[in-house]
Specification:
elongated; mainly alpha
């Protein structure tokens, strides 16, 4: 039974791969996963425009999910017909394999996308494990299918990182505005202002580095390399937000009270 299930998975993944070839009538699958909004336009947009862009992207993803769900049904029908032709006990109309997609509408939550990517990676590892004891031909097919799952997982992680980048920019800009206002209000506290300005400069540098890395990464065609660069950008974004939080901490009531004796 396990062998039959494995074969079903292999066939399903092969169909997905076929659907991504330029000459196939469903060759738009890979294009569906490509965002229509350029990162440079997001960078130059206002807060309201970025929100509109995010809403538009989510709407596009919802439409794409419906298209993929339709494609899933077609593939499952093909799988059932294949087994019926081979005189197996698969009954017509029984869904033997479900292509991994997010349930319902496309998620705008990076954490959910990362969970989906983790599930895809787990499936890829399961196929790779089965390949160790499979015959030569089956081993070849299992490894190809495993790689297809890995590539889908990478696309999920890229999408999660791009959504997280929008959220990070909004948080960074909010913090920046708040710090600027507080610095003005605490202009009579030179010690605090000096410490805060130092942290702000570090946050600014880290965010500039993150932006440059992402701008360079978006030109890459290798998704695995792009994801690696996004990871480097995320590290800088984490530093930038942490420095801002540390700067905001200098305006805390307890800290200000402890510093009053210095002025």
């Amino acid at each position: 039974m396990k062998t039959v299930y494995t074969l079903v998975m292999v066939i399903a993944i092969q169909v997905i791969a076929m659907c991504q070839t330029p000459g196939n009538q469903t060759g738009q699958v890979s294009k569906l996963l490509s965002p229509t909004i350029k990162r440079s336009s997001v960078k130059e947009a206002s807060k309201e425009e970025r929100s509109e862009m995010l809403a538009k992207r989510i709407e596009e993803l919802n439409s794409q999910i419906k298209t993929l769900e339709s494609l899933k049904d077609e593939i499952n029908t093909e799988i059932n017909q294949f087994f019926l032709a081979k005189n197996t006990d698969v009954q017509p109309g029984v869904e033997t394999f479900i292509i991994p997609t997010t349930s319902g509408a496309a998620s705008s939550n990076p954490d959910q996308l990362l969970k989906d990517a983790s599930d895809l990676t787990r499936k890829a590892n399961e196929l790779r494990d089965e390949a160790r004891t499979a015959g030569e031909e089956m081993k070849k097919q299992l490894l190809i299918s495993s790689q297809n799952f890995i590539e889908m997982a990478v696309l999920k992680q890229i999408e999660a990182s791009e959504l997280a980048w929008i959220v990070t920019q909004e948080k960074y800009n909010r913090n920046k505005e708040e710090i600027s206002t507080l610095l003005f209000n605490y202009s009579d506290k030179p010690y605090i202002c000096a410490q805060v300005n130092y942290l702000v400069s570090q946050a600014t540098y880290a965010m500039q580095m993150a932006t440059e890395i992402r701008e360079e990464a978006k030109e890459l065609t290798d998704n695995a390399v792009k994801l690696g660069n996004y990871g480097n950008a995320e590290e800088n974004e984490f530093i930038a937000l942490n420095k801002q939080e540390e700067a905001l901490g200098y305006f805390g009531t307890s800290y200000v009270a402890s510093c009053k004796k210095k002025f």
